[in-house]
Amino acid sequence: MDSVLLMFVILFFIYFAYVILFGERNIFRLIQKEQYRNSLFEEVSKLKSENIQLEERINYLNSDTFFIEKRAREDLGLVKEGEEVYIIVDKENISDKKEKRWIDRVKEKYQVFHLR
């Protein structure tokens, strides 16, 4: 009887070790999934902090009148009412581009230029 019980305990131990080490939900998969989960949590926290920084930057850029005015002047070629536009043209570096630059559109709009 003791040998049967010992054999049963050994078989149970072998089965239990097999399930833990090589079964569907083995310890190695559990460790791997835990590491993957931790890396995902780290990535989420990084993305949240980056999102907060980007929202702060958006709020700053939307509320900074100097930046808005600078972008309007540089990108769109806009001027304030009553301002005069002075454009210095380097005749040596003029290229024969068919596409008009924003500065060329400003030149056409303001036919009179005052150069110093």
Could you describe the 3D structure shown?
- With 116 residues, the chain is mostly helical.
- The protein has helices at residues 2-22, 27-63, 65-76, 102-109.
- The model has no long low-confidence stretch (mean pLDDT 81).
How would the blueprint of this fold be written?
Elements: H1 2-22, H2 27-63, H3 65-76, H4 102-109
Give a quick precis of the structure:
By secondary structure, the chain is mainly alpha-helical. The protein contains four helices and no strands.
On the 0 to 100 scale, the average pLDDT is 81
pLDDT < 50 runs, ≥5 residues: none
- For the termini, the CA-CA separation is 114 Å
Series of H and E elements:
HHHH
- Main beta sheet strand tally, sense and closure: none
Structural class: mainly alpha
What gyration radius follows from the Cα positions, in whole Å? 36 Å
What is the number of helices?
A: 4
Number of strands: 0
> Could you estimate the helical fraction of the residues in percent?
55-70%
- How much of the sequence lies in strands comes to under 5%
| Morphology call | rod-shaped
List keywords for this structure.
mainly alpha; 0% strand; 116 residues; 4 helices
